[in-house]
Amino acid sequence: MTTMTLNGTVHEVNSGERLIDVIQRAGVELPSVCYHSQLGPLKTCDTCMVEVDGQLVRACALTVADGMCVVTTTNAARLAQRQAFDRILANHMLYCTVCDNNNGNCTIHNTTKMLKVEHQEIPFERKPYEVDNSNPFYRYDPDQCLLCGRCVEACQNVQVNETLSIDWTAEHPRVLWDGGADIGNSSCVSCGHCVTVCPCNALMEKSMIGHAGFLTGIPKKALDGMIDIVKGVEPESGYSAILQVSEAESAMRKSRVRRTKTVCTYCGVGCSFDVWTKDRHILKVAPEKGPTNGISTCVKGKFGWDFVNSEDRLTSPLIREGDSFRQASWDEALDLVARRFAEIKHQNGPDAIALISSSKCTNEESYLMQKLARAVIGTNNIDNCSRYCQAPATVGLFRTVGYGGDAGSISDIAQAGLVLIVGSNTAESHPVLATRVKRAHKLHGQKLVVADLREHEMARRADVFFQPHPGTDLVWLSAISRYLIDEGLINHEFLGRWVHGLEEYRRSLEMFTLEFAETTCGVSAATLMKVAQMIAAADGVCVLWAMGVTQHTMASDTSTAISNLLLITGNYMRPGAGAYPLRGHNNVQGASDQGAMPAMLPGYQSVTDPEVRARFEKAWGVTLPRTTGLDNHEMVDAIRDGQLKAMYLFGEEMSLVDSNANYVEEQFSKLEFFVVQDIFFTHTCQFADVILPAAPSLEKEGTFTSTERRIQRLYEVMEPLPGSRPDWRIIQELANRMNAGWNYRHPSEVMDEMASLTPLYAGVSYERLEGYRSLQWPVAEDGTDQPLLYTQQFAFPDGMARLYPIGWTVPTEQPDAEYDLHLNNGNLLEHFHSGNLTYRVPGIKTKTPDVFVEVSQELARERGIQSGTMVELTSRHGKIQLRALVTDRVKGHQLFMPMNSAESAVNRLTGSNTDAVTHTPAYKETAVRMRVVAGDIRSPLPRINHRFGHPTPKPGVEVELKWKRKDYSVPGGDLVQLEPYSRPT
Questions:
Q1: Closest to 408 measured CA to CA, from 668, 63, 791
Q2: Is residue 218 over pLDDT 90?
Q3: pTM score, whole prediction
Q4: With the C-alpha atoms ordered 28, 33, 34, 38, is the resulting torsion angle positive or negative?
Q5: Cross-strand bridge partners of residue 810
Q6: Sequence-distant (≥ 6) Cβ neighbours of residue 780 within 8 angstroms
Q7: Beta partners for residue 674, in sequence order
Q8: CA trace torsion 874, 879, 883, 886 (10° rounding)
Q9: Please, which of 137, 373, 853, 911 could form a disulfide with 355 given CB 3.0 to 4.6 Å?
């Protein structure tokens, strides 16, 4: 801490803070058009000039020092601020009253008022550019653009897509996409960062235009006339009178525009933001305060919400009659479900019924689902979709460090000296998390190593990228571990103090030489040696992994190998280090936390532990089943064997997302009674006997738990669509028809009950999660959480971690003479999972309308394929037809297919092999053959897709080029001390 004087008052501040942050925190008015706390100083607008020790400086560019004397209100400072802002106004047509951005948060409006500007000294002149409407989600109006550079900085150094720039050498500078392309034909990924940080209406969501204001929806000709009237009044009335009218209109908007905080319903990163709505119309998503994302979103989080109001929404329960469905009342549908479950339980026992919870729904809903299974039906046959992706990672961490979750926060990943990404297309599957890695790598010298089959974005950015043979990650990870041990590059002090089992682990690595890894993995020993040395030298290592690891037959052991490597190098128990299995769905972590698993009650408490079971039995007033239930993979086989008669599934497209989909569908058709609860008539619904219409996340309250173990509240943005209901209400009503006697009035009461029974969540309450507050489990009863795990001990009784020896077996399904190609699969940035939500977003569907298979350039030449050729893929389990996309992202006989399709679903091809420990399907071990199908050639990826763009990497907004322009001078003249500022002696 240090002291400084601000306008005559002494303030105690943190040494090294930005001066502008200190001034704003003190509540002192200071214009700052280009500055945003999450972007840092851009120095383009010059409006934040203040006098420091007698000299004018930009407050955004200076850090505080002991004894500094700052005055914001001297005549010189005020003159410089006004001069700078006059230049800003020359770039902007001020017509706030009829502007959709007149919502109390427009920087240009608020600064005009703050500086009491009545007239522009420099008149506004139109720029020789048209409005760019080519992006489906937002538009850019050069006539409104201030050239502040916020959008450029956000794109270049926060999102790090590196699409936007400003050509300061042009006669009329403007923001450029890919150096001058239309937005819709550029590399823009529609993440929305630029729109979010724009201080005026130059960049605006199309969903806002014509909807936000009382006067903004009128025809363009009339609107232009009103703008002319506003501008005509200004010379006589001044801006103050116009602003008063604008503020009155802005205040009126508050009566009909709601701003509601929610948490994103897509991937597991856990972005949170305000959703602006007018009735059921979504005006915009406004990120700013989210503890994980701040200003950041991806295309889905920012713009992917049209599905909520889709005409396809289910709004009435449906009951099967023969081969069709009829509408039914809620009472009839729930009575039927309760009666049939009771009959099947009476005839076949409770274990003839299985339940599957949703990783898309809230913690409270998963808790109630597992309680319905155990306390009402009497079975541990309960699971969730973590079985398809994250269960092996959880096992690997349980074995070695004790908790099955991320070792720290996303902020830890950003500050690591080295990030190792294994089997994760992070930029597309977890895009906002990836921005933190890209930023640290670009700006702060973080090293990046990527191991993957495909050369995706993170691979292309990496310092080292290598492509091991499919399913061999365990081998090279173990070989690196052995090399580090043999060369004495391990952390002996850490191992001696905190870790058991080094000698046994060392012996288990005997076979994993660098030479064995080179032969098995197809990666040179020199590359592996280099990676090992980088790990040993790094100040903190974080390993990120996802489905490229967890969807193999050796998935649990490979995840264990990752944690073993981190342990021997001492990369736990400190910031910027640790294991980060990236959760795929918004609440896949929470669904498991809540006990929607066959062997675990909430908080990963074993169903076979008598003490645990007794605690739940006392609270619930029932006797609980004592044996482990079926997981979702075993459930399908149990249907085949005649053991499982009924199933209740909600919020999962299981018939397409489970492996070997043809087999799964065959078994679903044999169920005596099948209940599906969802917001759309999904592919799985066609096998159901009863379909219950649920509500999406925007229509309910509850909590989600993200990949970094972060628990966050979501609030009801809009009421459930008439005829649909939140899942927690449906589950409770069904339970009460089965004599449960539940009486939850709000999800908070469910959380209170769960917290009282679950040490991991002991201190979690809705009060402690109010607004944007969050907690990262484990949470002590007093509300103390643990953003960084293992700061004092590991999660074992003795506080010590364990090195866990593992072996090696060859992946089960290998290419051969008949099935000669390896098929990989995964996510696309634009779509989520099977596309049930994102295909109902027109802008996304326009950009990426259909699924495709990526074919290498070598294979394309070999087989006579070009982008758009229709091909048939046949595996040992099924066949599909789709179009090829020739790309350099895959090599040789490797294929890649996105998951986002119901018509040509990749799981028509995958088999039933699984990880031996968790039964997670080996989706990534699929061999296929390919046949060219005659027909038209039509590219499956339109040219407007961002993958055809050409980014223009820049260090940032490049303000120095602006300063070199002949028409630029520093406001304030001789009194200005240009950077670097040096205090007078």
A1: 791
A2: no
A3: 0.95
A4: positive
A5: none
A6: 762, 763
A7: 647
A8: -30
A9: 373
